[in-house]
Fold this sequence. Notes:
With 182 residues, the protein is mainly α. The protein has helices at 26-45, 56-76, 86-100, 116-136, 143-166, and strands spanning 12-14, 20-22. It has one domain: Hypothetical Protein Ta1238, Chain: A.
Amino acid sequence: MSIYTKTGDRGQTSLATGERVSKTDARLEAYGTADELNSWMGLLRAASSFQQSAFSSQEAELEWIQQRLFNIGAALAGAEGEWISEEDVQVLEQRIDLMLQQVPPVRAFVLPAGGEAVCRAHVCRTVARRLERRILMTENPEQRIVKFVNRLSDYLFVLAGFLAQKEGEKPQKWAKEAKCKN
């Protein structure tokens, strides 16, 4: 079997329903962004921090999230079924609350900076925010998916702070009048 079908050579593709749509369709932009986020999540999981046993629960959470991102892609492609549940949203909220109990509250904007895993978490967070915007551009977005992706960006922000603390880093706060240090 060949990997290429040539059916998309004229700028169209098929959704899960069989409907042919332009590759510029908002649904494709959305599930393409979900796929991009999933790839970034894989890169986050590959960070050296997650190879340490102290972070095994976070690594398992990231895999769980990656599975949900594939579910979101299927839903956006029009596949039948319930792909994200209210329980999925609650799991993210519970994980956020658990991490927040272990880090001091953030009362300022922080720069997306620090160690490797922290920076990768911030990249994932920004792509999750874009995914949410792309989903909202589709016709009749599934509210549980919107809610899940919104919580996911919160989760990734908190995860970045959690990882920074565990790695002994202090958050780098935004300073409007920062001076260049030579």
